[in-house]
TrEMBL record:
Pfam families (alphabetical): CpsB_CapC
InterPro entries tied to this protein: Caps_polysacc_synth_CpsB/CapC, Pol/histidinol_Pase-like
Family: Belongs to the metallo-dependent hydrolases superfamily. CpsB/CapC family.
GO function terms (MF aspect): manganese ion binding; protein tyrosine phosphatase activity
Reaction catalysed by this enzyme: O-phospho-L-tyrosyl-[protein] + H2O = L-tyrosyl-[protein] + phosphate
Keywords on record: Hydrolase, Protein phosphatase
The protein's name: Tyrosine-protein phosphatase
EC numbers, comma separated: 3.1.3.48
Length: 255
């Protein structure tokens, strides 16, 4: 398995604070059958700034540690950047890091309670520049929960989206689970990832996520999502079905 969203680089954000914790995460991932992890530290949030050069240096360091400790997981560089207006320049100027540095896919995080109005234009500008934005965990955004058409419009216009395994398995609560299922059903997501931060409160559980995907939507969907993770790290075109609107707007006011 490939995990495309994970906070595993030590001391950079709210993931592991020390090397030992990062090693523990690596061992847990190895045990679960994860072979590749895209390390995606937070960037441009109120608390954390981790630009491309820092991330590349830490990825190198952690890969060396994993080799030394015989942990069979390869760390690839990535970033989880909070949306801001000048992101396209950020990519061009080398502050932002596309997933596995292929130049093709960039993670974009919205603030939890809000999707800025300029997102649509920004996403258009990204695509003109040859970069496909990937919206991380849309199921945890309250604007999108109130009005799923926001997600539909962004995906219809070329964005991709990644759901979190814990949202689909129910760890984040029943309402988020139901909404995540609807997002899958309506072809509004293309990837599942752990968004793991540690081995205790926010562990990988990626296999459980894929199992849930398979049980509920069939082995074909599980296969497509697994293949998409592979295609993403190779910078190749991912599978996507025609998105549909979620008509049932039952989540108003639940967040
Ligand atoms: Fe994250």
């Amino acid at each position: 398995m490939i995990d495309i969203h994970c906070h595993i680089l030590p001391g950079l954000d709210d993931g592991p604070q020390h090397e030992q914790e990062a090693l523990a995460m690596g061992r847990a991932a190895d045990k679960e059958g994860i072979t590749h992890i895209v390390a995606t530290p937070h960037h441009r949030t109120s608390k954390y700034d981790n630009s491309k050069d820092t991330i590349l240096a830490y990825v190198n360091l952690l890969n060396k540690l994993f080799e030394r400790e015989q942990i069979g997981v390869k760390i690839l560089p990535g970033q989880e950047t909070r949306i801001y207006g000048e992101m396209v320049e950020g990519v061009k100027q080398g502050e932002l890091l596309t997933q596995n540095q292929t130049g093709s896919y960039l993670f974009v995080e919205f603030p939890a309670g809000h999707v800025p109005r300029y997102a649509e234009q920004l996403f258009y500008d990204f695509q003109v520049a040859g970069v496909t934005p990937v919206i991380v965990h849309p199921e945890r955004n309250s604007d999108i929960a109130r009005n799923p058409d926001i997600l539909y419009n962004l995906v219809k216009n070329g964005a991709l989206a990644q759901i979190t395994a814990a949202s689909l398995t129910g760890v984040m609560g029943k309402k988020i689970k139901k909404f995540t299922q609807q997002i899958v059903e309506h072809n509004l997501t293309h990837f599942i990832a752990s968004d793991a931060h540690n081995t205790t409160t926010r562990p990988f559980k990626l296999r459980e996520g894929y199992n849930e995907l398979c049980d509920r939507f069939g082995v074909g969907v599980e296969f497509v999502f697994k293949e998409n993770a592979e295609l993403l790290i190779e910078g190749r075109m991912v599978n996507r079905d025609v998105p549909e609107r979620i008509k049932e707007k039952r989540f108003f006011g639940v967040f």
